[in-house]
Amino acid sequence: MAIGGVRSLGSIDPQAAYGAVRTAPEPRASFADQLAKAVDQVQDLSARKQEIVDEMVAGRTTEVHDVMIAAKESQLAFELLVEVRNKLLEAYQELMRMQV
Q1: What CA–CA distance (Å, rounded) separates 35 from 23?
Q2: Do residues 49 and 70 make contact, with C-beta atoms less than 8 angstroms apart?
Q3: Whole-structure pTM value
Q4: In angstroms, rounded to a whole number, what is the distance separating the alpha carbons of residues 83 and 35?
Q5: Residue 9: pLDDT over 70
Q6: How far apart are CA 15 and CA 12, in angstroms?
Q7: CA atoms within 13 A on the CB side of 94
Q8: In Å, how far are 13, 17, 22, 57 from 8, measured between CA atoms?
């Protein structure tokens, strides 16, 4: 009597089980692409903040809270990027300390 392998519950595809049409999975971006995208987003936020500050100084914008929100968004995004860089650097240094 042959006994088949036991599959884990996570391997059951509900779409395939109920006859749904399966589409090809989207190709995933590499880590380098994701990091470049994050850097671009930080640069965009910084440029947006600078535009809003310039508009306020010129007198075209009177909403102080919009300026403060843009400044805080830019600051938080930059701080997050710096922390990611720090973690990457720590991971690299840890790999370099490993003995083979």
Answers
A1: 27
A2: yes
A3: 0.65
A4: 13
A5: no
A6: 9
A7: 6
A8: 11, 15, 21, 62
Distance (Å, whole) CA 20 – CA 26: 17
CA gap 60, 92 in Å, rounded: 47
For position 4, what pLDDT does the model report? Answer: 59
- Structure-block tokens of residue 23: 């589409």
Q: What is the pLDDT of residues 29-78, one digit of tens each?
A: 888 899 999 999 999 999 999 999 999 999 887 789 999 999 999 999 99
Report domain extents, the chain.
29-97
pLDDT bin (cut points 50, 70, 90) of residue 27 is confident
| Cβ-contact 51, 66 below 8 angstroms | no
Cα–Cα distance, 14 to 33 (Å, whole number):
31
How far apart (Å, rounded) are the C-alpha atoms in residues 65 and 43?
21
How far apart CA 85 and CA 92 sit, in angstroms, is 10
Q: How far apart are CA 76 and CA 42, in angstroms?
A: 9
